[in-house]
Amino acid sequence: MSTEPDDLGFPLPAAGKTSRLTVLVVVAVIVGGAFTFGYLRQRKAHGEVPVVSGEPKATRVEVITATTLKSDRALSLPGTVHPLEQTQIYARVTGYVRSWKVDLGDKVTAGQLLAEIDTPEVDAQLSQARAQLAVARAAVTQATAQRDYSKSSSTRTAGLADQQLVSKAQVEQTQAQAATDEAMVTSAKSNVAAQEANVRRLVDLQQFSRVVAPFAGTVTTRSIDRGALVRDGATTPLFTVVAIDPVRVFVDVPQAIAPSVRPDTPATITVREFAGKPFVGKVTRSAGALDPELHTMMTEIQVPNPDGALMPGMYVQAALTLSVPHRIVELPATALYNDAQGVRVATVDATNHVKFIPITIERDVGATVQIASGLTGDERVIKIAVPSLLDGDLVEVASAPAKP
Question: Which pLDDT tens digit goes with each residue over 109-139?
Fold first, then answer.
């Protein structure tokens, strides 16, 4: 037995001389076939490859026509309930609460008394103003008597001057006094008018001691008690009153549908707390402009609420049916091409040649897509996208199977 390190104990077969050559031949065949396929495909796209006898002249495809959808679109938008009117009632006069007549949740009518306030300071000011008015009126009486006396004295002096019994200076003096007394009467009357205005102001201010409801509604807050000091200009309201029949529901309509919002459009409001009980209302107004950040338009829906079931602050769902401002067609999702050239569909013209048309998708509903632009609905669209088709290829249109 041999003791050489490479001796395996058995003879090895002779190395094959053609194994490397075989590999090179296979690789060359593959590369050549790929090159030939690409070259012929490119020439075919330019119409340069002659049709080999026995080869199919055109790809067989099935075409369909896009379905035109109705212009109406049903939307379900979240919204919030707001009162028709809401006001916070503040004290207009300084004083102490004598009594309050309504409380949280009470229904009130327009002009109903809500609270009474004692106003000792205003009462004192009114008494003082009335006294000052009496003094001003007495001053008018006094000034009037003085004026009348000055006028008669001026007349007598003028008569004596004609008889040359008094000097001309005395005549001028009496005339000046009469004019002064006439001015005093005018001033006294003006003072009376000012005092009367002050009295009216205080009388009106005293009337604010009776706090009344500005409109019919519901009291939602009360923040006063008997004996509490309230001040004119305070930041805490005495009551909050809201009107909730009807209520206003605000929703944000998306940009695509915003141009279709019109007054009197019906709307159905549903609330989770009232399952199976819809509330029917209608659109009353819209903002007429889009929010610069959300690109939605605020829209108001008024809903009758005679039983008060819809409370301000509730979250609701508003169902609206609005028309889409542009035409929408529908195609199967299998007809779409989505590649570097964008989203397209392949159509077949009158001569059975392929023409690709870019489209804009309005909505993807899974098995079908709704197309907003690119198609008119009259085109013959290839139902199933064939990746090997190029623009201008000749195809054979298969007859559509009969519908059951």
Answer: 999 999 999 999 999 999 999 999 999 999 8
Residue 146, Ramachandran bin (φ over 0: left; ψ between -120 and 50: alpha; else beta) = alpha
Distances (CA, A) of 196 to 107, 120, 136: 39, 20, 10
Domain ranges (residues) in the chain: 59-69+327-398, 91-119+209-237, 121-195, 244-323
3-state DSSP assignment of residue 225: coil
Whether residue 71 contacts residue 323, with contact meaning beta carbons closer than 8 Å, is answered with yes
Cis peptide before 254 (omega within 30 of 0): no
pLDDT for 3 equals: 46
pTM: 0.58
Q: What is the average pLDDT score of the chain? A: 82
* Other Cβ atoms within 10 Å of 155 Cβ, number: 12
Q: Tokens representing 310? A: 């819809």
**Fold adopted by 91-119+209-237:** OB fold (Dihydrolipoamide Acetyltransferase, E2P) (2.40.50)
How would you classify the pairing of strands 59-65 and 395-398?
parallel
Ranked by mean pLDDT, which of 26-40, 50-64, 100-114 comes out on top? Answer: 100-114
Domain 244-323: top CATH class: mainly beta
Provide CATH code, domain 59-69+327-398.
2.40.420.20
